[in-house]
Amino acid sequence: xxxxxxxxxxxxxxxxxxxxxxxxxxxxxxxxxxxxxxxxxxxxxxxxxxxxxxxxxxxxxxxxxxxxxxxxxxxxxxxxxxxxxxxxxxxxxxxxxxxxxxxxxxxxxxxxxxxxxxxxxxxxxxxxxxxxxxxxxxxxxxxxxxxxxxxxx
Length: 153
Fold this sequence. Notes:
The protein is α+β, with helices and mostly antiparallel strands. The relative contact order is 0.15. It has four helices and five strands; from the N terminus they run E-H-H-E-E-E-H-E-H. About 30% of the residues lie in helices and about 25% in strands. Helix 1 crosses helix 2. A hairpin with a 4-residue loop joins strand 3 and strand 4. It starts with a strand and ends in a 19-residue tail after the last helix.
């Protein structure tokens, strides 16, 4: 089995991370301008209070990526994480890479004293639910809503 290395994304790694994030969003039929992805990535790298970015690499090739954002939660009484994105290349799924990434997310969340990590599973992508259940995530009985605003000009 190949060794999977999971590292924090630094500016030198940002191009590789953005390629993977863009693929993730497109898989969910979400088109976010690449310049906006770079802006978010640079902001998180510059300000760790916003969360963290991780890159999974095997044999020198980026194969997975994570963005865990942080926010202050009344419900949990402190800082929590939102697992914004966890993506593994389709041809590399089922090889433990997602589990390795999730293990690192949980370890870093604990180091940061986050009270919880929340996430969503997009309809049609339920194949990932067993991964989250294996890592002790619990389903919540709520619906998520979003109101999108046009970018400021």
